[in-house]
Amino acid sequence: MEATGVCSICGKAGILYPCSMCGARACRDCITLRGVCKPCMGGRTMTIDDFRNKGLDSK
Ligand SMILES: [Zn+2]
Ligand SMILES: [Zn+2]
Predict the structure, then answer these.
(1) What is the pLDDT of residues 23-57, one digit of tens each?
(2) Where are the domains of the chain?
(3) What pLDDT score was predicted for residue 55?
(4) Separation of CA 12 and ligand 2 centre (Å)
(5) How far apart are CA 28 and CA 21, in angstroms?
(6) Which ligand is the nearest neighbour of the Cα of 9?
(7) Per-residue pLDDT, 53
(8) From the CA of 7, how far away is ligand 2's center (Å)?
(9) Residue environment code for 31-53, b if the CB has 16+ CB neighbours within 10 A, otherwise e
């Protein structure tokens, strides 16, 4: 289930996803496709938004 609140990484309010590594609550800008927050992944992994944007850009 999704939960709303304030992102632990960037401080933005919205839907949050729990990091499977550190347990931080990250927004979709800060959670990666693997369910791990950007700080845990070193900040260089595609986010859910990046993935969706790539899909839309292919039109
Ligand atoms: Zn965030
Ligand atoms: Zn994390």
Answers:
(1) 999 999 999 888 999 998 875 556 667 667 766 55
(2) 3-57
(3) 64
(4) 16
(5) 16
(6) 1
(7) 72
(8) 12
(9) bbeeebbbebbeeeeebbeeeee
Residue 21 C-beta-side C-alpha neighbours within 13 Å: 12
Residues near ion ligand 2 (Cβ under 5 Å):
19, 21-22, 24, 37, 40
H or E stretch at 48? helix 48-57
- DSSP type of residue 4: E
Max intra-chain CA distance, the chain: 36
Q: Is residue 12's pLDDT more than 80?
A: yes
Give the integer Cα–Cα distance in Å for 31 and 54.
Answer: 16
